[in-house]
Amino acid sequence: MNLNKYLKTSLAKQFSLLTAMIIIAFSCLIISLLIYQNKLTLDFHDKNEQLETKLDLSSDLDYAFNLAVSEMRAYFAYEANSYFENVKKQEEKIEDKMVLLQKYSENEEDILFLQEVQRFHSYYFENMMPRSKALFDEGKKDEVRAIATENASDRIRAYQSSLKQYTESLQQAVEDNYLQLEKNILYSQIAFAAALFLLIIAMVIFTRMMLVRIGKPLRTLTQAAGQIADGETVIFTDKINRQDELGLLSIAFEKMTKSIQDKEQDLSAQNEELLAQQDELQAQQSELEEALEMTQKRELDLKLRNDLVEGLANSLDKQAVLMSIVKTMCDVINADKGIVVLLDKGHDHAYFGISKQESKQFIQNLDSGLITKVILTKKPYTIKRDCNVDELAYHTTKSYCFDMYIPVLSSSGSVEAIMMYSRFSDPFDELELDEYEALSKQVAISLDKIKIFEQSEEERLLVQDIFDNIKEGIQLVDTKGSVIQINKKLSDMIQSDSDSIIQNSYEDWFKKLSVTVENKHDLKKFFDRVLVDGKFDDPSFVYHQQSPTKRVVQVYCEPLTRKGDTFGTVIVHRDITKEYEVDLMKSEFVSTVSHELRTPLASVLGFTELMLNKELKPERQKKYLTTIYQEAKRLTALINDFLDVQRMEAGKQTYDKRYDDILPLLTSIVETNQINSPNHTLHVDSRTSNTMVLGDKDKIGQVFNNLINNAIKYSPDGGNVYVDIFEEGPNLKIAIKDEGLGIPADAIEKLFAKFYRVDNTDRRRIGGTGLGLAIVKEIMKAHDGEISVQSEPKEGSTFTVSFPIVIGTHNPSENSTQENDDTKVNVIIVEDDSSLAQLLQTELEESNFHVKVYNNGETALKAIKSEKPDAIVLDIMLEEKGINGWDIIKELKEIDTLQSIPIFISSALDEKEKGLALGANEYLVKPYQPSKLSKLILQTLLKKDWSGQILVPSESHDD
Questions:
Q1: Which sequence ranges are marked TM in the entry (predicted)?
Q2: pLDDT tens for residues 269-280?
Q3: Tell me: domain 470-575, CATH 3.30.450.20, correct?
């Protein structure tokens, strides 16, 4: 009863009650929905977590069993106890996982799978493994293989099948659990929507009823208000019996009507008084308008100054700030044009209202008197001048312009910039000068800020440039792992530009890095320990990256501290691929060399022991000694390869280069290898007669021996080996092709590296140290040649060596003396020392040159002019009378047909610069080796024309 009376006294209370009821009903619906959905989610997570745990246990069991089987096989393969110890460790891990699995077994399927795991564990670790190890240790390897082939593989496959079925059932259970959660949530949402719809309908009905009760009395009051507005007398006959606001409003409205009628006369008298006051207010309004105009002017002035301050503060772009300064200052000063120029090296500037040519003129005259004055006084000043023609426009009367120069002083007190503004309206007074000087200080502060920013930006760019030029990938992260800065090397490794990585969170940048990382989980653990846990006890880790290139990277972290507080971490990614490959190569080398050295040593020691301890027949002794000799030769060749590589790396390998025909050498090597390899057929095909090269015969023979031996060795099933000799441009090429195993494409680029051998089972059965091709490449490099390879796996390989060709070679026969003379190079020696002349003549003739000797300058010059030799060997100091070598050179260089003949000075005078300046090709100071002269002549002629116009000797000789 009391509640009903309480509600009737106020509309607001009625509406408040209605609103409260709606809110309470809606809140109950929401809370019910949230409680129900929360229960569904908790049940889902509990069940899902249990299923995920079972999946992890099954995965761990699978991995542990597979690793145990692999380690046991490794034990059988390598007979190393460390592998068997690893098997025992895996057994312990499996037993731990079985205990956990038993803890989580809750249905029949879990129990059956656990029983299968226990049976397989009992079978493998308690039965098969101990029995196999015992048999293997006793040397009964056939019985071990029999155990493996009888039923071990079947039992393993059966266990793996059971594991797979159990894992698939768990995954299906996870999916079913998720689908059930979605279905329950959908049902709860439908129920909530239906309840909400019913609540809205009830709210509409109650609201409609209340509005009808309110509308009727309001219409009555509105009708009465209209009658009052029309000047009618209103008499209330129907009383509104309500206790709420409408009832009170009706009573007040009736009282107001009576009061209005009573006071109507008073209002008429007051109206006359108000008319008198209106005239007084109009006068006051005029005064207020003048004050308002002044206030608006001040407000505009303040706005312009505020714009100047904002323009200075809101940008660090120097040109934008200068432009803002000159425009805003023109508005503040009411200037028609202006310019601001920095007094730095670049004279950065901005202008407004003037032309580009005028701005250049101002900058070019910074040393003029007007500007020098403001720099010296450091105070602003103004001048009055007549307007220029271009400033008068259409005005014909005399006009004036007022210029103001304002210095901008830096914090150190020096003039940093000059501002000049001009206006045609009014002169500048002293008060304005003081005011604008104060504004120039704001400009100076902004310019100092920009200068500091530019300096810091230059330092930042310098640091970034240093970072970018460091070969290691570097990143700086804050205490939360977010990227602060990286260098170009790291962005290349992550394959993302630096702007997209900066400010990335730890999870984001690690995701980009881990895409190409092979051991990403271990790398994640390392970063978690360092960046999340803050443990730097083991600050380095090695990971393998697959793209953009395969590489091995060592990452290490160091904390960044300042005054004892850690504010970040520097992470360095160092590419250690070469070092990693070197370590692998070193291990491979030790293994290979151990095998290659022990095999022949075992034969030598074994046969030597037999000969020392037993009486042997002579033929058996000879056979054993022959074997010892061959194995010793094999050891010698191996050691020589090591020594050759060492000498080549140290640059101490010497070569006795001579001109030799390689065809007989190559034929001899092929015949020797054919005898030693009856299962192979070797073919030699020469498609050129120019088979002369300049080189060390023994080393070139070593090249061909290595390549042909490799062709035979890597064709274990026999077949053909083709040796093709042909010309290609300025090069003589020898291609050695086999039909053997071939080389994988990814191994070709590493083929000529020391100790490298292709990782293939077929090749591991073939001996070798991996030095042969490295030696071949160094020998070819020393002979200005090249070696290349083309290969397809299972289709054979082709190795091609290339030598600079010796053009115009000719192999003379004994009965073709005249033809041989025609192909020889003609050389004239001018030498007054008969012994030396004879020595040089013998050397050149042995090299198949046609030689004539003269000891007199005049005679030699006549012979040169008539015979036009291919080369001249000239001594400078000839007989005391007559011309000397210098005179001969000068005269020859003045004759067009003779000036191209190569001249080789042979003199005891050390005046090489003068000789070369006069046009000599080479300058030899006595004493020197005569063989050096023949090589220089031939090399010069080859450089002169390799197309065959110059004939060169074809017979080899010894130095």
A1: 15-36, 190-211
A2: 777 777 777 777
A3: yes
Angle formed by the axes of helices 430-469 and 318-333, nearest 10°: 170
Closest residue by Cα to residue 470 from 574, 342, 606, 325: 574
CA distance 621 to 610: 9
Q: Which CATH architecture has domain 817-944?
A: 3-Layer(aba) Sandwich (3.40)
Residue 826 pLDDT greater than 70, yes or no: yes
SS3 169: helix
For 690, phi then psi, to 5°, come to -90, 80
Q: Where exactly are the structural domains of the chain?
A: 2-213, 315-457, 470-575, 582-634, 654-804, 817-944
Three-state DSSP state, 30:
helix
pLDDT at 689 over 60: yes
Mean pLDDT, the chain, rounded, equals: 78
Report cis status (omega within 30 of 0) of the bond before 927: yes
Pick the CATH number of 654-804 from 3.40.50.2300, 1.20.970.10, 3.30.565.10, 3.30.420.310: 3.30.565.10
Fold of 582-634: Helix Hairpins (1.10.287)
pLDDT digits (tens, 9 = 90+) for 11-44: 677 777 778 888 888 888 888 888 888 888 888 8
**φ, ψ for residue 359 (rounded to 5)?**
-65, -40
- Return the structure tokens found at 37: 């959905």
> DSSP letters of 137-177?
HTT-HHHHHHHIIIIIHHHHHHHHHHHHHHHHHHHHHHHHH
Q: What is the secondary structure of 679-703 as a DSSP string? A: TEEEEEEE--S--EEEEEHHHHHHH
Higher pLDDT, residue 312 or 357:
357
Would you say the CATH fold of 470-575 matches that of 315-457? yes
Q: Which of 603-615 are b and which e, b meaning 16 or more Cβ less than 10 Å from the residue's Cβ? A: bbeebeeeeeeee
Look-up of token digits 């720099």: 375
Overall size of the chain counted in residues:
959
Q: What is the pLDDT of residue 139?
A: 81
8 Å CB contact between 768 and 592: yes
Give residue 955's pLDDT.
37
Q: Which residue has the tokens 């300042």?
A: 562
The label of the residue with tokens 């881990």 reads: 514
Q: Does the pLDDT value for residue 809 go beyond 50?
A: no
Locate 97 and state its tokens: 């996982």
| Residues facing 720 on adjacent strands | 681
Residue 505 pLDDT exceeds 80 = yes
More confident residue, 798 or 807: 798
Calpha distance 301→840 (Å, rounded): 103
For 812, other C-beta atoms within 10 Å of its C-beta total 15
Give 594 or 606, the one with higher predicted confidence: 606
Instruction: Answer left, alpha or beta for residue 273, where phi above 0 means left and psi between -120 and 50 means alpha.
Output: alpha
Q: Is residue 852 classed as helix, strand or coil in its secondary structure?
A: strand
CATH code of 315-457, in short, is 3.30.450.40
